[in-house]
Write a structure and sequence with these properties.
3-stranded antiparallel beta sheet; 4-stranded antiparallel beta sheet; about 350 residues; mainly beta
């Protein structure tokens, strides 16, 4: 599951249920910006005392909201902080260093494991997590063939999926404190490099966003791939860079390269008719979407100022009027976005 979706299933805040926090990973120092969110942006939290060392790519809160991780381009390539309405002192780096630029990250649903995908072999590194990194788990027996772009754990923690460069573009393994034997590839592969991967909140479906048309594939999942669901009647309009299910699984969002930069569909064991585009579009290539825990908000990180666009969301209706931008914008291309758990 995409880390944003992992966090969303923790529960619903409900209308008027109080604020959460909204984190954005971006391409310019300080590389991560976090804001209180309560039907609008609050004042940006102070930057961490130890900044990430390069372009921020993916951001995720732990399922209990007590930790915040950001992947980035320069050693140590991952930074994890205690989180309590502000950054604590950065945790020590993992004992086994990540060997290349990190792109994706995911906590397991119980928060006991953290996975990081990266540019250099073995392309994925997985560690026990308990307020700090444990000893890296052994690499999978069937290696990821090239750059790992994203990883997701199933809601029950029994499966880990990886989106990556080079065929088959998605690799899935049983997970039980280590990798099991890789599952057979789907009968219909993604058509190009995999960028993002997510399980539905009930674990019954597995989605992958990728480079070439149709830009997203979704499969039934039950200890193996089922037959790919039919493509949406209106395809995402470009490379499928980021995907997310809503917390209740009723909607599915794709952030993509070409206008309107985000496409959202009803989801019920297949795609419904695409919702109407927002009246104010994101200003450039969509990198990552996220739904809030209560399902009342949808955010999309994108590559042109203001780098983040956030909208009210009503399932069955769609986008509301875009919220005002934060008073302090993210400082560069928005690559990742996540809401904290409720």
């Amino acid at each position: 599951m995409d880390p944003n979706s992992l966090n969303l299933i923790k529960g619903a805040a409900g209308a008027g249920g109080g604020s959460v926090d909204l984190a954005v990973a971006h391409a310019t120092t300080p590389f991560i910006s976090v804001y209180p969110w309560d039907a609008g942006f609050g004042t940006k939290y102070s930057d961490p005392s130890t900044l990430p060392t390069g372009n921020g790519f993916k951001v995720a809160f732990s399922p209990d909201g007590a930790d915040l991780v950001v992947t980035h381009s320069i050693t140590p390539r991952i930074s994890v902080y205690p989180w309590s309405s502000g950054f604590g002192t950065k945790y020590s780096d993992p004992g086994t260093a990540i060997p290349g630029t990190s792109r994706g990250c995911a906590f397991s649903h119980d928060g006991a494991t953290i996975a990081v995908t990266h540019y250099s072999s073995p392309y994925i590194s997985v560690y026990p997590w308990s307020s700090g990194f444990g000893t890296k788990y052994s690499d999978p027996g069937t290696a990821i063939p090239n750059t790992g772009f994203d990883a997701a754990f199933s809601p029950d923690g029994a499966t880990i999926a990886v989106a990556h460069y080079d065929s088959p573009y998605i690799s899935v393994y049983p997970w039980s404190s280590g990798f099991g034997t890789k599952y057979a590839n789907p009968s219909t592969l993604p058509t190009s490099n995999g960028f993002n991967v997510a399980f539905s909140p009930d674990g019954a479906d597995l989605a992958v966003g990728f480079y070439a048309s149709p830009n997203v594939n979704v499969y039934p999942w039950s200890s193996g791939f089922g037959t790919k669901y039919a493509n949406p009647s209106t395809l995402p309009a470009g490379h499928g860079y980021g995907i997310a299910f809503s917390a209740d699984g009723a909607d599915f969002a794709v952030a993509h390269m070409t206008s309107p930069y985000i496409s959202v569909y009803p989801w019920s064991s297949g795609f419904g008719a695409k919702y109407a585009d927002p009246s104010t579009l994101p200003t450039g290539t969509g990198r990552m979407p996220a739904f809030s825990p209560d399902g009342a908000t949808i955010a999309v990180a994108h590559n042109t100022s203001p780098y983040i666009s956030v909208y009210p969301w009503t399932s069955g209706t769609g986008f509301g009027t875009k919220y005002s931008d934060p008073s302090t914008l993210p400082a560069g291309v928005g690559n990742g976005v996540a809401f904290s758990p409720a």
